[in-house]
Write a structure and sequence with these properties.
The chain has 13 helices and 21 strands. By secondary structure, the chain is of the alpha+beta class.
Length: about 425
């Protein structure tokens, strides 16, 4: 089996991408999805968030929700809004957000290589979220949520992708958030071979975003293998839908933290405790950290710049030197008593796309006592953690721009 292979994608008919594409299923609440899909009968949200077509209050994990997703997919195919390509293809996918551009390959990636960790992971998954994606894949008989994957330094692949995306795209749409999504269909069998061989030569790929989707695809494949006495390994369920970008083009934003209280201390006592491990400097303006081991701290009406004492920064441990771990190990845990980042209700997370004003808003509104602005995790750090077989702390990465659901889906045998 190859690391990747082409597939016959299910995608919007010519000229209809703008009507179809939607944000990823997991970045919108049901209410937000219902508002986004209002007046848009062909929005992919009717497939990825199908509870919006059922009575308010419907459990998003009820059987009728997955059944509605399948019916909506059939309807969009029946009405020729979505159509399958006649032959297996690779696809080049470009995202443009402001001045940032990244160009990657849409492919079916090997679940066998995921299961043996050649496609590396860096996060734990939650069973309930996996179960949801398993039910969605089984109901649709398709993978509709692409997984963002990174490939290491490979100028030859970069060059092929640049060549394939030199002309006019087959699909081109700008989403509500201003991100432009462009897609080129690569039909040339010789280019298929070059891409397949080039990826086979890579030592590893790295999941960036989509651990639950990949884990669910693996579970579906295992169940289908078990139930198929004629299993060969070539069936489409042995692969998952991936968009694979060069790691140096990917953009990780800060993933910031807000806390509900100061663990029984007033601001003065709290700052004194923080000062045992960090230098603390008042700032007349919001603090966006400019380098690793630097933090912004916001208390009501005042920003501070924190810098962890140099001797406390691990020299080589790829996990312990992450900024999210430095904050946890040297402040959240020992000073605030927040040790379980996944379950402690005293902490919440704010994606960097919302900006530092959102941190001020959360604190000034009285709901939170303090906010922390972090330096973004770097792709090199993510890859180093994955190489070491470690797991990153919860909410370590916020990737932007996001992929669109509905631009290409992977239908299973």
């Amino acid at each position: 089996m190859h690391l990747i292979r082409p597939f016959a994608g299910l995608r919007p008919a010519s000229g209809r991408a703008a009507e179809v594409i939607a944000p990823p299923y997991d970045v919108l609440s049901t209410e937000e999805a219902r508002a986004r899909a209002a007046g848009r009968p062909w929005s992919f949200l009717h497939i990825s968030k199908p509870e919006i077509d059922l009575p308010a209050g419907t459990d998003p994990h009820a059987p009728e929700v997955y059944a509605r997703a399948a019916e909506n997919l059939r309807r969009m195919t029946r009405e020729d809004v979505l159509a399958s390509d006649p032959a297996p293809s690779y696809y080049v996918y470009r995202l443009v957000m402001g001045a940032h551009t990244q160009t990657g390959l849409v492919a079916a990636a090997s679940l066998a290589d995921y299961d043996t960790n050649r496609i590396r992971k860096h996060e734990h998954t939650q069973t309930d979220k996996e179960n949801d994606r398993v039910r969605q894949i089984d109901a649709l008989n398709a993978q509709t949520g692409p997984v963002i994957v990174a490939y290491p330094h490979a100028p030859g692949i970069d060059e092929i992708l640049a060549g394939c995306s030199a002309g006019a795209p087959d699909a081109d749409a700008t989403a509500d958030d201003g991100v432009r999504h462009s897609l080129w269909v690569v039909r040339d069998a010789q280019i298929h071979g070059r891409l397949t061989r080039a990826f086979d030569a890579l030592p590893a790929l790295y999941i960036a975003d989509g651990h639950h989707r990949t884990a669910a695809a693996s579970r579906v494949a295992a169940a289908r293998r078990k139930g198929n006495p004629r299993h060969t390994g070539e069936e489409s369920y042995n692969y998952f839908l991936a968009v694979i970008f060069p790691h140096h083009q990917m953009q990780i934003l800060d993933y910031n933290r807000v806390v509900a209280d100061l663990n029984g201390m007033d601001a003065g006592a709290f700052l004194a405790r923080v000062g045992e491990r960090f230098s603390v400097e008042k700032s007349p303006k919001p603090v966006k950290p400019a380098k690793p081991a630097e933090l912004g701290l916001y208390l009501p009406g005042q920003w501070y710049r924190l810098a962890l004492h140099r001797e406390r920064i691990p020299a080589s441990d790829p996990l312990a030197r992450l900024d999210v771990r430095l904050l946890s190990d040297h402040l959240l845990g020992p000073v605030l008593g927040i040790k379980d980042l996944r379950r402690d209700k005293r902490i919440d997370y704010v994606g960097g796309i919302r900006g530092l004003t959102e941190l001020e808003k959360r604190v000034n509104g009285g709901g939170m006592a303090a906010a922390f602005a972090l330096y973004p995790t770097r792709m090199e750090d993510l890859m180093a953690v994955a190489e070491a077989g470690d797991v990153m702390p919860t909410k370590s990465t916020w990737f932007e721009p996001k992929l669109a659901d509905g631009l290409v889906s992977h239908v299973l045998d």
